[in-house]
Specification:
The complex is a heterodimer of chains A (150) and B (245). Chain A is α/β, with parallel strands linked by helices. Chain A contains 3 helices and 12 strands; from the N terminus they run ααββββββββββββα. In chain A, 26% of the residues lie in helices and 46% in strands. Chain B has 2 domains: 119 residues, Rossmann fold; 103 residues, Tumour Suppressor Smad4 (Sandwich), CATH 2.60.200. In chain B, 23% of the residues lie in helices and 37% in strands. Chain B has 6 helices and 16 strands. The chains are: A alpha/beta (150), B alpha+beta (245). At the A-B interface, strand 1 and strand 2 of A face strand 9 and strand 12 of B.
Chain lengths: 150, 245
């Protein structure tokens, strides 16, 4: 029952509707188009949209949107992640993870909250981050911020 | 004291009428000053630097993008750059083609440029840097075969199109958020498949063995080339219709 409630809540907040991509595009600071190949450690501070391919690692403090043509071979870490494409690597969504019907995931997944649409492929372990995890992540982030300020 | 730097291409007869009109207008507004014609000068750098040493309050580029870049190139690396940044302003009077830099600052033509010089609205602007060359607007290269190395990752496009490294837009483009005060370059890649990539960075390396990087539409530079940005580097007199906040 709790799982159903979570999914419904997530659907309202993080959409699988046709318009969802456009909304994300407006907000994104970084967009990687479908003809682009990225190799290396890709890090950002704002929202990231990936429509192309990426090998290495992918990390931001905000949100990541992975389009249905995207191919990611990387460990992916962010606050919120929406996946419609292929991801080979471990995924950590500290807050919400939305997995669309076209998503193919080969790797372990850590999440705060999750929603999975019918048709998605997942090959890996799913681990829900506990409140303790989240607290320790928050402390780490605060320590990192204060160190950067100094 | 105002110092007007006339680019050498203005020696052509077809620009004579425009220059006459300009000089009359400047005199009417009380903005007349010393004129330096680059056509007759071999060492442009030392001529411009000398005027700053003599106490020029405003250096005005009369010409096009290349004129502006020549003046910035003459000043930015010089020992007197500190003095220039504190005491001297850069103005632009566009004449002829290739005037995207003036357009960015809301300066449409020579007549409007005179009124803008009189109003003296000043903005501190970032300056893009490709190797030893400076740019205000953008550096452009074809996308196919171009590799961009940025902070620990490399980015490559297999499609035909254009890579633009933007400091300051020359025309309004709502899809690109570019700000010449933010100390960042906006990399914008658009391919023929209408595929768009955009990101912001402070420095990158551009490499393409088959083509060169075009700076501000007037100068070509070989790659690989390091591209960077220097924040708030030049004080420029701008119009109220400039393309940035």
């Amino acid at each position: 029952m709790k799982a159903v409630h979570l999914i419904s809540k997530f659907h309202h907040k993080y959409m699988f509707s046709k318009d969802s991509k456009l909304e994300k595009l407006k907000d994104a600071e970084t967009i990687i188009g479908s003809s682009i190949k990225v190799k290396g450690n890709f890090q950002g501070q704002g929202n990231i949209i990936i429509e192309g391919s990426l090998e290495g690692s992918l990390k931001t403090d905000a949100s990541i949107y992975i389009g249905n043509q995207a191919k990611i071979v990387a460990n992916t870490e962010s606050k919120d992640i929406i996946i419609n494409g292929e991801v080979r690597g471990n995924i950590k969504a500290k807050n919400y993870l939305a997995i669309g019907g076209t998503a193919k995931i080969y790797g372990d997944i850590q999440y705060g909250e999750i929603s999975i649409e019918k048709g998605a492929t997942i090959n890996g372990q799913l681990l829900m981050l506990t409140e303790e995890h989240k607290r320790s992540e928050k402390i780490k982030a605060e320590e990192k911020n204060s160190a950067e300020e100094k | 004291m105002h110092v007007y730097i006339y680019d050498d291409y203005l020696n052509k007869g077809k620009y004579q009428k425009s220059l006459n009109r300009l000089e009359i207008r400047l005199t009417d507004l009380g903005l007349n000053g010393k004129i330096i014609r680059l056509g007759g000068i071999k060492n442009i750098k030392s001529a411009i630097q000398n005027e700053i040493r003599l106490g020029a309050k405003t250096i005005i580029a009369v010409g096009n993008n290349q004129t502006v870049n020549k003046i910035i190139g003459a000043i930015i690396d010089a020992d007197l750059y500190g003095d220039f940044q504190k005491k001297t302003l850069l103005g632009i009077i566009p004449i002829g083609e290739d005037n995207s830099i003036a357009a960015s600052f809301g300066i449409k033509d020579a007549a409007e440029a005179c009124n803008i010089l009189l109003a003296r609205r000043i903005e501190k602007i970032d300056l893009g840097l490709v190797g030893n060359h400076y740019f205000l607007n953008q550096a452009v290269i074809q996308s196919r075969g171009t590799v961009l190395e940025i902070d620990g990752y490399a980015l490559e496009s297999g499609e035909k199109g254009e890579v633009r490294i933007i400091n300051l837009l020359s025309e309004r483009e709502p899809s690109i958020k570019s700000n010449p005060h933010d100390g960042r370059l906006d990399v914008y890649i658009k391919t023929k498949k209408k595929d768009i990539t955009c990101l912001a960075t402070t420095r990158l390396k551009v490499a393409n063995p088959d083509c060169r990087l075009l700076i501000d539409g007037v100068m070509e530079v070989d790659t690989p080339a390091d591209v960077g940005i220097m924040k708030d580097r030049v004080n420029i007199i701008v119009g109220k219709d400039r393309l940035f906040e």
